[in-house]
Design a protein that fits this description.
The protein is mainly beta. The protein is built from one helix and 20 strands. Among the domains are: about 40 residues; about 90 residues, Elongation Factor Tu (Ef-tu), domain 3 (Beta Barrel), CATH 2.40.30; about 60 residues, Beta Barrel (OB fold (Dihydrolipoamide Acetyltransferase, E2P)), CATH 2.40.50. β16 and β17 form a beta hairpin.
Length: about 290
């Protein structure tokens, strides 16, 4: 073999060796990545579960027991300020009648002054500071699922306490904003001995519907491909050299909350599925929807 051919052969040999080494390194990297992915996977057994759909909204705390103080004449001045505590028959303001006579305006009950006359509202309001309520806005999609007397859970962030209340009023007139309509729902509650005050912010949670004995999986278990939804069978773990798509279980979806979702297909109960790590899935469902 000539020196030139020998040199060329050695070059090919070296190049082939480099390609082989790089291929082995790449294969090892892929194998290690697959191993790390498998190590971080979770398995989940599909069993009958429950999903509770809830309406959650926030608002301001007002008094559930308030009375107006009106007068027949021209308001002259208030002798109290917002938030002042008064007792029945205390002088709270003055007005002038149509004869020009000056009269006192007196409290008709014990409580707190929560409104004084203005150019818009010509009356006082005295509120009981011990009986509270929260007005929240519920969408037109959920309002028909709420009933008077229904139990609600109220949470007041300022004191980090929860209270049990009930729905005391449901407005029949919607609040329209563009194409979006909400309805005011009033929830009354007892704050017991905790330092809750009028005007504080609160949130109320009301159960809308409960779905029991349905196949439920964590939302992150869903796999979306070509616009369809699947679960990954745990059988893939014994055949990890094959494409995951060979072990997809086609499903449709039903009701969902933030964490879990109903899955629908034949023979799902008792199956073990895989939850892939860091799928980056976003929660794509609306509460209460039973559509795919």
């Amino acid at each position: 073999m000539s020196k030139r051919k020998n040199k060329k052969f050695k070059g090919w040999l070296i190049a082939g060796a480099i390609v082989l080494v790089l291929g082995l390194i790449g294969f090892q990297i892929i194998q290690n990545a697959n191993k790390r992915m498998i190590d971080n996977m979770e398995t989940f057994v599909i069993e009958p579960g429950t999903i509770v759909l809830e309406a959650l909204a926030s608002g301001k705390i007002t008094s559930a027991d308030a009375e107006e103080v009106t007068f027949n004449g021209t308001f002259r001045r208030a002798t109290v300020n917002l938030g002042d505590a008064v007792v029945k028959n205390d002088k709270i303001g003055e007005y002038v009648n149509n004869m020009g006579q000056l009269f006192a305006i007196r409290a008709n009950r014990d409580g707190l002054i929560t409104q004084v006359p203005s150019a818009v509202m010509s009356k006082f309001v005295i509120s009981n500071p011990s009986k509270f309520q929260l007005d929240i806005q519920i969408t037109e999609r959920d309002i028909y699922k709420i009933a008077l007397g229904q139990t609600a859970t109220i949470y007041v962030e300022a004191v980090k306490e929860s209270y049990v209340g009930e729905v005391t009023n449901i407005s029949s007139l919607g609040n329209i904003s563009g194409d979006f309509t909400t309805y005011t729902v009033t929830v009354g509650f007892d704050h017991q001995d905790t330092p809750v005050y009028l005007g504080m912010s609160g949130s109320a949670k009301i159960v809308l519907e409960t779905f029991e004995n349905i196949a439920v999986v964590p939302v992150e278990a869903l796999i979306t491909s070509d616009g369809k939804r699947y679960l990954l069978s745990a059988d893939w773990l014994d055949n990890s050299n094959l494409p995951q798509s060979d072990f997809y279980i086609p499903i449709t979806t039903g009701v969902a909350d933030i964490y879990d979702i109903e899955v629908i297909a034949d023979g799902l109960m008792g199956k073990t599925i895989i939850i892939l790590p860091d799928t980056g899935s976003n929660f794509p469902f609306f509460q209460g929807s039973r559509n795919d």
